[in-house]
Design brief:
About 65% of the residues lie in helices and about 0% in strands. The chain is built from 10 helices and no strands.
Length: about 260
């Protein structure tokens, strides 16, 4: 009788490592996979679903008065739950935060994650104090003026930082997209790049038009909404601003990785 045997398919970097910063990059995701391993694992599907839900919730939260205060509060609570799920599903990243070498991309990425965490904590604490619907039963009195300013700063910085954070992982998202369209296409590639430039360009205009910079530094202490404007126009502007910072995050990350490879 023949002895059983095991075949291990191992993807390693040029220096022989089987884990490290190269995992999740465009190169790693586009590498050939063993037969039967092309589909995403259930955990990855959950990660993707939670991330998409967080992105949608983030955009809904930016509308505030346009969606109603009660809806805003409940969406905020949902965002907090999704944030916790996101960190549970990515627990391995948190567990390895003190391990391995810190190169420029990892330093910047970790710093952004820390700032996102601060923005989320600020939004949650101030949101609890300001709540008039979902958490109105809590015996909290006073501090509303400070909480309002904290909520504004945390919300707008969180929006920008989460968008940059998404940009740092954009190569992974594109790697997943390539599984749907495995055949290379120069037309598709350049169409995507031109579209990204157009969105980023309009995002600059929308960033100024919507006074987002003023809200981030508290130059204005109140957010102004045009109630006569169709809601779709508001969301299109904020999607463009998000696209701008995703674009910036993606190319800053790619630039730092390119510099790191040249030094080696």
């Amino acid at each position: 009788m023949e002895r059983p045997y095991v075949i291990c398919h191992i993807l390693s970097s040029l220096d022989g490592k089987i884990t490290g910063p190269f995992m999740g990059t465009e190169t790693e995701l586009s590498a050939p996979k063993p037969k039967g391993r092309g589909s995403m694992k259930p955990k990855m599907i959950w990660k993707l679903a939670v991330d998409i839900a967080m992105t949608v919730a983030l955009l809904l939260l930016m509308a505030y008065e346009l969606v109603g205060q009660a809806a805003h509060e409940w969406i905020g609570i949902g965002m907090f739950v999704l944030f916790i799920l996101h960190h549970i599903l990515n627990g391995s990243w948190s567990g390895n935060i003190l391990k391995g070498r810190y190169h420029p991309v990892r330093i910047l990425q970790t710093g952004i994650v820390f700032l996102v965490l601060c923005a989320m904590i600020g939004s949650m604490i101030s949101g609890i104090i300001l709540s008039r619907h979902a958490l109105a039963f809590l015996p909290i009195k006073g501090g509303r003026s400070l909480a309002r300013n904290l909520h504004m700063v945390s919300a707008y910085w969180g929006f920008v930082l989460m968008s940059v954070h998404l940009g740092f992982h954009w190569s992974m998202i594109m790697g997943m997209a390539r599984k749907l369209f495995p055949k290379p296409s120069a037309v598709r590639k350049w169409t995507g790049r031109i579209l990204a430039l157009v969105i980023a360009g309009y995002g600059i205009y929308a960033f100024v038009k919507r006074d987002i910079g003023d809200y981030m530094i508290l130059r204005s202490h109140f957010v102004f909404f045009d109630y006569d404007e169709p809601l779709i126009f508001f969301y299109l502007d904020y999607i463009a601003v998000m696209g701008l910072f995703v674009f910036m995050g993606n190319y800053v990350c790619a630039g730092l990785r390119s510099i790191g490879r040249r030094k080696k």
